[in-house]
Structure formats: structure tokens, C-alpha cells
Amino acid sequence: MSAIKxxxxxxxxxxxxxxxxxxxxxxxxxxxxxxxxxxxxMAKTVIVKINDKMAMVVLPASEKVDLDLVKxxxxxxxxxxxDEREFExxxxxxxxxxMPPFGNLYGMPVYVEESLGENENIAFNAGSHTxxxxxxxxxxxxxxxxxxxxxxxxxxx
Length: 157
Fold this sequence. Notes:
Blueprint: H1 3-12, E1 17-21, H2 28-35, E2 43-50, E3 53-60, E4 63-65, H3 67-74, E5 79-81, H4 84-87, E6 110-113, E7 121-125, E8 131-136, H5 137-144, E9 147-149, E10 152-154
Parallel strand pairs: 3-6, 6-9
Antiparallel strand pairs: 1-8, 2-3, 2-5, 4-10, 7-8
């Protein structure tokens, strides 16, 4: 989904948001820094396979997905990171690694790290490595209907 399509969707839903253009950055933490967004508010999207079905796990930039936690919380038999080649066609209008966390628009479930819900706002890539969307977490939750779970561990390095 391109930033234009994402903005059109948000406009159709009467969602208030801010679009932030920033210098090119490839990791969520670099993006947060470049855009002057607190790391706890910067949401990154990780694509996983839960029982061989694609799903999104959305978590703070400063954390990494814990597949065992996701497996336990979803009662799945298997959870693994999806390979980029497995999902790049699903996000043909996005740069790889810059997918917005709107799995509902791609026909996939979304799981959100429960700590993101403690924020008033979240920011996330808008389909590119140079633009973010910032909106209220409540609006994100209302549109996407993610399942909240404990899904991450804080980076130690």
C-alpha cells in the first residue's frame, strides 16, 4: 500500500493523522531517530508465519519479536519469521521492510505488542523508508482490530 492509498484510507475513515517526511532510514530505530519520534511510539511491522499462515506482529522499534511468546499467546503449533521472498508480492506497493501495520487491508491477522497500547500515539512506516504516519493508538486499534499480546523482548545491545 502506497502512502497515498494509506492516506486515502485514513481520510475515508475520518482519522486524524500526521504525515512525516524524514531522511531515508531502514531500521525502525533509525527511522524513529530521523523523524524525532520516541522509540516506544515507533511501531515496526514484522511478518511471521503462524501455522504456515502470514500474520503481522507490530511492536515498538526498541524491541524484537519473541517467537516463543507469540506461539504461546496464539496457541499455535509453529511460529516463524517469514522470508521476504514469501511476502514481497503481498506488499507490491511498499518498499520491503516499510509495510504499514494494516494487515486488515492485506487479509492477514495483526497482533500488537501490548506495551504499544500504553502510548497515546504510534508512528509507523507508510510504505516507504522516507515517510511515516502518526496517529492515535485508539484509532489504529479501531481500524485494524489487532489482538493484543506480549510478543517482544527488549533489545539488549
